[in-house]
Design brief:
heterodimer; A: alpha+beta; Beta-Lactamase; 5-stranded antiparallel beta sheet; B: Rossmann fold; Arc Repressor Mutant, subunit A; 2 domains; 5-stranded parallel beta sheet; 9 helices; 53% helix; 12% strand; elongated
Chain lengths: 650, 210
């Protein structure tokens, strides 16, 4: 308690000195001291010499003074020494008679220290009174507010969209970094600038202003507006401008937040996307039209059917061909367009295809608009999904009428052709015959002359004459033999099938062709099976067959200059039922081994293209087979088989 | 048989034709040599006497026309073609290529002998021409280069004076050359020298003197 006493005494001493010493004053002074001790604000009274004359209880508690500090110089008290120039402040206050304030920072605490003159009862200034107002909490809240403001500012400045705050009279108060950057202006030059003067004529702001004015006039119900503006720094940009009223509780002042959102890139991307979309749509449209046009104009009749076989699409060609429309088909049914004879087999085949999912192939007659039935080849193919279920049938009619007619005509004329070419080959025979007969005949004539010469010589060369005469007989006989063979060849005997030795037929024809073979310098090799069984056939026809094949081989080698011309003929028994003949040349080979048998097909400059067609008809008449194949190395092999005479076999 | 009598070559692949021709031609007092192919004929050494060749158009291996083509050098015998079925294009080709005759089999003795006689006569003349020409060439080879230079002036009838002026020498020198030329060529007259030059194919002056 002693610590309580001293300040009181000290105060009392002061008061006593000021007011004199009487009991009533003492009581009042004590009360005053009590009051001062009840005040939580520290109070210190300094004398003119800056020694402490009094401090109240709060001074002791808050500033940590002790009773012994009374009378000590203020500079010796640490908490007072922390206030710079305190003595000077005090002497200024005493000199001026007016109070002043200084700040005191004591540890974590902040005080505002009011220094006021201390006067005695005579109104003489005897010292100073220091009152300490604790402002620590207040200061913290100010710090917090500053921090919050800076934080907000930092956030605003990192926002990429420009923002400005306008006063109620539309003057710019502040903006974020993005705003100053976008508009190319500085904070200083826009401060308090009416918004409408923004840009100072450099920016194309006229439409922008108009929109903004309108928006601000409308108030909270406005819609954001989109404006295009040319900026010196960034060029033409599209901005979405929006305005929001700002109000602060307890503040009557209203402000407006204006935000700008740069949507140029987004707009461009949207435009690009739109363009891409349109181009894709266009492509799809073109492609679809193309496909549709292909299907409609393809020179074929295209149809589609449902998995159950129900026709559901017919292309234009079909409708044009029948001069109908799709409804007619739906109404009448497709069978009514078929030839009556084709309906039943077609329905059966189609039902079967639909049931099994197998490709559908058929030949039908379809009625044209003029009532004519034309032949069509029909092909249907099932389209399937990933589970192998039929999703649709796609089909095609192909007009084969002309081909079919031609085939028929060809078949009809086959026999006529055969007859015609028999005559045609006579010319070819004639050349061979001429050579065959000429050689012995020439020898006969020359020998005859020689014989006469020897006989008429002096003396007669009888031996020589005899030799010549013998040669005449020999060669004349041979010529006669040739004639006999030829007559046999041309004999107009009715076609009769007799037992024939194929080897013999080949030898006869080879003999006939020997002139041609020599003339064209062809080497002939024969390999004829000794035990070849006889065949049944018409001699003349088979001779003609062999003749044609051999001549064909010989002629095929005409262009050969760089290698020997070789014709080889082999006969073998292929199996118990058939004999096989192979004729191989070393010519240029075949391009199409089937086409050569067609009538009027020829690769020769002067050929009729009949020879091989005749061969085929002869072979057909004899129930044999005839085919051609490219030979090993070069050339072509023609092969034919004929049935052997089985009853002649043991 | 006179060993100097002409020889007839026969090329035909048909032995019957060879036999009969051999017999007939021998009966007419001519030598005969027969061959089965062009190759056989080409291989054979030919005697140096008037000859003719009877050639079959269709031969195995080298054909008659091909053989004719190969025999284009100067001393080959004239050719008589024979053919079993003579086609017109072949005969035209054969005649164009210088054949004497083209006979179709069978042919008569007269036709054949006429053709052979013709051919042999033609060969005789040709052989004589070849001999003459060889002689001339031998004479010509005796001339000096300068004399060969002077020869064209002489046969063109230029005076020695003109020739001398053109060749840049004296009239007398030209006169000496001229005498040498006449002697070496064994020409009895200027007219004969002109004919010789013609046969030798000595060309006229390309750049006659003014």
């Amino acid at each position: 308690m002693t610590t309580q006493r001293d300040p009181v005494n000290s105060a009392r001493t002061g008061l006593e000195r000021a007011n004199g010493s009487d009991a009533a004053t003492n009581v009042a002074a004590s009360e005053l001291i009590n009051i001062l001790d009840a005040v939580e604000v520290p109070v210190i009274v300094l004398r003119r010499d800056s020694t402490i004359s009094y401090f109240n209880k709060a001074g002791a508690d808050v500033l940590g003074l002790s009773p012994s500090d009374t009378g000590r110089a203020s500079r010796d008290i640490p908490v007072l020494a922390a206030m710079p120039h305190l003595e000077k402040h005090c002497s200024d206050v005493i000199a001026a008679g007016a109070e002043s304030r200084v700040n005191l920072h004591d540890g974590e605490k902040w005080f505002i220290v009011r220094i006021s003159p201390h006067t005695n009862v005579d109104l003489q200034i005897t010292g100073t009174v220091l009152t300490f107002t604790n402002v620590t909490a207040f200061r913290a809240s100010i710090d917090q507010a500053i921090y919050e403001r800076e934080f907000t500012k930092a956030i605003l400045n990192t926002v990429a969209d420009p923002l400005i705050v306008l006063s109620a009279d539309h003057r710019i108060q502040t903006g974020n970094y993005a705003f100053y950057s976008m508009f190319g202006v500085s904070r200083d030059e826009t401060q308090r600038l009416p918004l409408w003067e923004l840009g100072n004529g450099v920016l194309e702001l006229a439409p922008f202003r108009a929109h903004l004015k309108e928006m601000l006039a409308v108030g909270p119900e406005h819609q954001p507006v989109e404006v295009d503006n040319v900026f010196t720094v960034k060029g033409l940009r599209t901005l979405v401008v929006d305005a929001h009223p700002l109000s602060f509780p307890g503040h009557s002042e209203r402000r407006i937040l204006v935000t700008f959102r740069d949507v140029t890139e987004r707009k461009q991307a949207e435009a690009g996307l739109r363009e891409l979309n349109e181009s894709l749509e266009k492509q799809v449209r073109i492609r679809t039209e193309e496909l549709s046009s292909i299907i409609e104009t393809i020179p074929g009749l295209v149809w589609c059917a449902a998995p159950d076989g129900e026709l559901n699409y017919l292309n234009r060609r079909i409708l044009e061909y029948t001069a109908t429309n799709a409804d007619d088909w739906a109404r009448l049914g497709w069978t009514c367009f078929l030839h009556p004879d084709d309906v039943e087999p077609t329905v059966r085949a189609w039902s079967n295809a639909v049931a099994t999912g197998q490709p559908y192939d058929n030949q039908i007659r379809l009625r044209r608009s003029d009532g004519v039935y034309r032949w069509f080849s029909v092909h249907g193919q099932a389209a399937r999904d990933s589970d192998d279920r039929v999703t649709r049938w796609y089909g095609l009619f192909i007009d084969i009428c002309d081909r079919k007619t031609a085939e028929e005509a060809l078949r009809n004329s086959q026999t006529q052709l055969s007859r015609a070419t028999r005559t045609a080959t006579v010319g070819e025979f004639a050349a061979a015959i001429a050579h065959e007969i000429n050689q012995p005949l020439a020898a006969v004539v020359t020998n005859g002359h020689a014989c006469l010469r020897w006989l008429s010589a002096q003396p007669p060369g009888l031996a020589k004459a005899q030799e010549a005469a013998e040669r005449i007989v020999r060669d004349g006989t041979e010529a006669g033999e040739v004639v006999r063979r030829i007559r046999a060849l041309f004999k107009h005997a009715p076609l009769e099938k007799i037992e024939l030795d194929l080897n013999e037929v080949i030898a006869e024809v080879l003999h006939l062709l020997s002139g041609e073979i020599a003339k064209r310098r062809v080497g002939v090799e024969t390999e004829l099976a000794d035990d070849l069984p006889t065949v049944i056939g018409d001699r003349v026809q088979l001779q003609q067959l062999v003749f044609n094949l051999l001549l064909n081989g010989i002629e095929a080698m005409d262009p050969i200059l760089d290698r020997p011309k070789k014709l080889s003929i082999r006969t073998t028994q292929e199996n118990p039922e058939t004999a096989l003949v192979k004729i191989q040349d070393s010519g240029v080979g075949l391009e199409d081994s089937e086409k050569v048998f067609e009538a009027f097909f020829t690769t020769k400059g002067n050929g009729m293209g009949m020879g091989l067609a005749i061969c085929r008809s002869i072979i057909d008449a004899h129930h044999g087979r005839l085919w051609a194949a490219s030979a090993e190395g070069s050339g072509t092999t023609f092969s034919f088989t004929l049935p052997v005479e089985t009853s002649a076999r043991p | 048989m006179n060993p100097d009598s002409p020889i007839v070559f026969v090329v035909d692949d048909d032995f019957r034709v060879r036999e009969s021709l051999c017999s007939l031609i021998t009966s007419r007092g001519l030598h005969v040599a027969v061959f089965g192919s062009a190759a056989e004929f080409l291989e054979c050494e030919k005697p140096d006497k008037p000859a003719c060749l009877i050639l079959d158009l269709q031969l195995p291996g080298t054909s008659g026309l091909e053989l004719q083509h190969q025999l284009t050098n100067g001393d080959a015998p004239p050719i008589v073609f024979i053919s079993g079925h003579g086609d017109i294009p072949s005969s035209v080709r054969a005649m164009k290529a210088g054949a004497i005759e083209f006979l179709s089999k069978p042919f008569s003795e007269q036709e054949l002998m006429h053709a052979i006689d013709n051919a042999i006569t033609i060969d005789r003349i040709a052989r004589q021409k070849r001999t003459e020409l060889a002689e001339l060439q031998r004479h010509y080879s005796l001339l000096t280069p300068r004399e060969r230079e002077v020869l064209p002036f002489v046969v063109e009838g230029y005076a020695n004076k003109v020739t001398a002026a053109d060749l840049g020498t004296s009239e007398i020198t030209i006169g000496v050359h001229r005498g040498q030329i006449m002697r070496k060529m064994a020409a009895k007259s200027l007219a004969e020298l002109v004919r010789m030059a013609d046969k030798l194919g000595i060309h006229r002056l390309t750049d006659p003197p003014k």
